[in-house]
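hi support,

uploading two proteins for the ticket. first:
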Amino acid sequence: MKQRTQALFPLGVLTLLAALTFWLQHAIQPPEAARDGKNRHDPDFIVKNFTLKRFDQNGKLQHTLTAEKMVHFPDDDSTVVTHPYVIFTGREEPTRVRANQALVSAEGEEVVLVGDVLVTREASAQREEMSLATSVLTVYPDDEISRTTAPVTLRQGKSVVNGVGLEANNITGVASLHSQVRGVIEPKKATQ
């Protein structure tokens, strides 16, 4: 009996090692991905050459978006807009925004404008036309705040200011450049 137990001991150890190896292999392998297509980043709709208009509660036009193409992705509920052109008409002086592309988050609370971004506010009786040019600009539409860490050029009339990084608040009308600020400010002409 003692010889039989001694002979079975190595067999038991090998069986235990085989079981541990099998368990370890399954424990460290990632779960197999579902093949139902839910994890794919494929569009569920594409719209070409369109115009969207948004109105307030009183029926007054707030803004108009015209673009070459819009692609929506259901996996993360994001939207990519190609060559967006937006006119904000909710204020006295219309503001126009152009870019090569806009990346819109699921709820539309964040819009990242990419490539040749140009924001222009028309002139008013009190001030000359203003513009902002940069390569990327993140806009928070509900708060009317825009931010970038990229180089920026601001123009108003003949005045030009360059800098790196910007935060602009459309409600207060305050824009802050973060660093490397240089510019030429043209003095206002005295009225006679």
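and the second one:
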Amino acid sequence: MLVGSGEKPERAFMIIVAEEESLGGQKMFEHEVNPENIKKAEFVVAIPSYNEADSIAFPVQQADKGIQSFFGNRESVIINCDNNSNDGTKEIFLSIRSDTPKIYISTEPGIKGKGNNFRNLFKKIVDLDAKGVVVVDADLKSIMPNWIKHLGEPLFEDFGYVAPLYVRHKYDGTITNSIAYPLIRSLYGRRVRQPIGGDFGFWGKLAQIYLESDTWSDDVANFGIDIWMTTLAMNENVPICQAFMGRPKIHRPKDPGGDLGPMFRQVVGTIFNMMVEFYPFWSKVKWSKPTAIFGFGLGETEMPPPVKVDKEILFQRFHEGFDRYGRIWEKILQKETGNKLQEIREMDRERFDFPTHLWINVLIDFAIAYRDKLWGFDELLDSLIPIYLSKTLSFVIKTDRMSVREAEEFIEEECVQFEATKSLLIQRWNGR
């Protein structure tokens, strides 16, 4: 259907919906809806989604305000890259009034996964010849217009990748705290505190590099996408900075002891897979270096809301792991590491302590088991979850009386231990 130049976008959208619903009550799949026929854009704000009809309006409105306030002199567009949501996400997105044009793109019916949304986005960025791209989550409740500024402005000031720097509760993002941050930092030598933050910016020309990478996998097509993009940017030697967001990231809360399942497998599996792919790069990295922070010193910092942790569930899941995954642990863990796990199994919950050096050894053993395909990937990574939860329990107990700042210093000290034992990782990786 062609809409005449005098047709208002809202009217055009109504016609599209009417045509969809005319086909026997079944909505016709549309890969793209581009009401204003945008062919080129210098700046893009993208919002990946799946069934976010109840939340997408707010980040779209804030993104629009941010674009108009800080990028008004650039040709801009807001893109919703969706998984063909069936809850009306597309209709809500297109109906939101904004001064910035909007484009909706979707994966084919039945194709899910955040990474698949991004693959569509990368292609569209190339088509639009965009110079800078900012991505924000569709369920954000704390986004402000200046988030678009902080994530986008460095892209026009010689930085090619912008990671977020939130003020987070000490128990929010435990996969980042225990695995992603210390591993990425020690492997690739860059202190990027939130490598899987969900909100970030990148050069438009990186989209072509992402599309052409031979490291794409099923994990990356899902929740592995964020850590994959960050890691590729590091290995491409793209100039990286962090954007201080000034307030916490508030979205749908998650209990660290809740069901991790696919997300854990996809994020950690991607980290391990990239270790295999980029060994020539990271094996030469000795120590980490700080990463520039854009927008620091924004005035008073807002403190994050509390995150409740059920310590009993963490404790139980660790003990259940011995019965469920004991045979895997026996096969892949060094004997000394396995014996140490048996020792801490006997500890009381309130005095539970998982030493950092033991956790490092566990991750090394699992990374090598992943590389050598000593077990099926899904079950191997699932078997790491109870150990990870016990490490989380230990962190919660040790930092119970600490402030956010003190807990952050504790995490930094653990990262230093990761870096100090990197030679052990390389020795084990090389079979010594």
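thanks. also noticed: The beta strands are 32-33, 43-49, 76-82, 102-106, 132-135, 161-165, 200-203, 240-244, 293-294.
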